[in-house]
Amino acid sequence: MSPTRAPSGVWPASPARQSSKHTRRRPIVPAHVTVSQFPDRPALVSAVAEQFADLLRGIQADPTGGIHNDGVARVVLTGGTAGIELLSAMATLKDIDFNRVEFFFGDERNVSATHPDSNEGQARAALLSKVNVSAERIHGWGLDGGDMSDQVREYASTVAQHAPRGFDLHLLGMGGEGHINSLFPHTDAVREDTRTTLAVTDSPKPPAERATLTLPAVRSAERVWLLVAGAEKAEAASHVAHGAPADEWPAAGAQGRAETVLFVSDDAASML
Question: What is the mean pLDDT of residues 20-33?
Fold first, then answer.
């Protein structure tokens, strides 16, 4: 499917939401993706921070806001350069009640949260340690370098308990080969169609051991926003925009129930 560019560098938005019986498990079809293009990564991060803040403000302004109708946003954070820069930008905002956000993590390396490679640790340093948010709102994977089975199983229960209707927003970075979270091309993890969490022990990108949300979990999100910058990601960005098979380009399988937005810098948009 070839999307058509709309004015001002923005491509068409996703179609109207499907009926409720289809919202949890959408068929794998070419996605309708909104492509929002920016000159460079700083401009991209600034724009996403503004939209992220507007989303949180809107949910919190209504006592029945958000997909759980309780005025509390459920958000999945992402690591990577753009993802962490986004969190740093959010930390400067003074009118967001971060204690009315449930924070989740799309994936985690099999290290403790205090390790410098930890996504949770980086998120805490960039945002969560700088704002007023209770520990009960931050849902980390609890990994420690050992066997991941129990933590992965518990994380599925955590998601089911605190986000039973899914997420208001799932933020995603993307690798040059199209991986998202710890879902890599041509792996059993990207083909998982039932479980919401998995332990990955053979990641092609070091470290080999990781825990991850799966595509069914990603697709439970009302909104999926991909943050993509860098010329090395141009081919993958093109495949996402045109709905390639998720087995080959995992990011193409990341579809929000209401919208899927590819925020892309000029260098990553060269093949769109």
Answer: 42
